[in-house]
Design goal:
By secondary structure, the protein is an alpha/beta fold. It is built from 24 helices and 26 strands. The chain has a 7-stranded mixed beta sheet.
Length: 714
Amino acid sequence: MGASHSSGGGATTQRAQHHPYSAASSSQPTRYQPSYAHNAPAYGRGEPSSNGTGPSSTDIRQGGFHQHPSPLGNYAPPQYRPQGQMPVALPRTVMCSRCGVLLSVPLGAPRFHCYNCRALLSLDLYYQSGQFKPSQPVRAQGAPGLQWTKTHDNQRWVRRVGDDGRLRWARVLTAEEQDVLKAAENDLSAIALDVDTIMDNLMQLPPKELKYRLERLGLASKSKGAIEKSDLAQALAGAGQVLREMSNKQLKEILESIGVDSRDCLEKDEMIRRLTVIAFKGLGEKGWVRQLGSNGQLDWVEAGEYAMDPVLPIPSINLHDLHKAASYPFEQKVNFFHTQLATLRVPWEHGHVPIKVHRQNLLEDSFALFRRLKPEDLRRIFRFNFIGEPAQDAGGVAREWFLLISEELFNLDFGLFEYGAADNLCYTINPASGIANDHHLEYFNFAGRFLGKCLFDRQHCAAHVTFTLIKHLLGWPIMLRDLEQVDLQLWNSLQELMESDDPEALCLDFTVTLNKFGEICVEELKRGGEDVTVTKENREEYAELLLRHLLFERVRKQLVALLQGFYQVIPPPLLSIFDPNEFELLLCGLPNIDVKDWMKYTRYRGSFEAKGPRNQVIKWFWEVVERDFTQEQRARLLQFSTGTSRVPVQGFKALQGSDGNIKLFTIEDSSRGPFPRAHTCFNRIELPRYKSKEELSKYLLLAIQTEVTGFGFE
């Protein structure tokens, strides 16, 4: 038997005459966007071109190189000029370090792309090392890619820009996971493990996990010639010897790339030991992302394989601007976001869209009007009017329309959405929407356009959606732990399975049992899954397939329609500056949280129960929440503890749990590590017995920012 689950015109910025990173640069940085092959001419090597600026045009395959136009002049960046000397001219040509083709460097630009393989290249290292010789071609180094850097120690994922210029995800270790690794490091140091013991442990892992660990440790080349699973395990078991051949700098770079704090690793042996432990113990829980192709195909890929083209229809910004914006506080991020969207808005004089609807037929009329609109029309100014009513739309009618549509669109009786299993405050896609509504996919496209229009017009959606759906909208990694908010019972069973010494005793197979409108049906997680028993060797595959089925496969068609409608209004890369918590606040607005009411309807458990609000730790907690936290941070705390920032209309006395019954906010003591822990299905937070208010505030802030991402240079 398988698992069981129940479901009911901005102006273009003028180019500066000096380099944007020089001391003489203005406060508004010059924007530089690299030129690509399809935007710039290719020249041959021999003859001058017609304009006298370079060789004549020939076929690139005959030995030509790519000429980039330069917006910054024929000089090296100022920070690399020898002191007291005149600017040094850049080399005429460089050689791509990846594919070997000759390129003409974009003059004065610190980074550029290869037209052939699109690798991101840089001459920075040559200036820094003094090896620059303008008389001959040099091999350009792969540039350090942009990275949404870790903003705190409890973060699991960071975005990076790969050599191909596409946005990708990288798994990093949280502070808690590093503590576990350090403990394992001490344990393994005390125990002399032989190669056979290590091999036995590694052979229990699937080949995909072995390859993943080798890649993250910079040993991907070791997996290319591996044919058998034992070859991969042998390569990983011998990782220590390969790592020993690397330089200290290389080892530190590997540690930093996976988010490991290496400040206490002073010696090379210490870094090797830490990386060896990671090879043996793994990199923590993995994630998966839905990948939407340009052809409308939706795939489910591992987070490390996900890629998004950072194509922005806003010529005045690039990835460097997103890098800067992602480090802003939430309010500044929102201002940046709305400022960029304003440049996409079609001016009133170029045409606007009248939305005239009958109040009694609001949803159907609105759906019919949106259905006729082209994607470019969605960025025009809308003027709303209820037929038969004299009110003119000066903002109030628009707000009412957005409110009423969100109420009707997310109405359970309409069948598109259902309550999230964790509570009755958030909505998620109804897998059986096709039974309830014959035109459900068209309505999901409308729903996506509606949510996009909410953001575009600075309106708020009255309905809150689940975090898993928000992660789908953002292209954010979904992890096994997300099942806890979907089905608590299933999550607990899965935890039991992963910790069991004898999984076969649980009599599970690769199927899942679902309840569809009272009818019990069994679906296979893979072909022939009914005949495959879950064992210790394949239980990870089972858990991954279960996650994929429940959060992706069952709603694949609906999700495609929703995402396509949403992205017709909002450019996906512009959303990359937000994390799921911030996105909920952006879409639904900051809640008005009454801390007094929150305190009044809070219950205490464990060692906090006797004194309740008089307990010193509890006093510090409410002092931090009421006096020190901003409204945004209070909303984040509510998200962390209950799964949503939404407060019931009746206040905290009406807070519900996953079973639909009243479950008041609860604080319980904990003895597990320094970080608070949350049980969103029960609206419960566990607080360690901190020794000071400052310590409590520090770890509480880190906890509520879990998985928040910044953006910086790698």
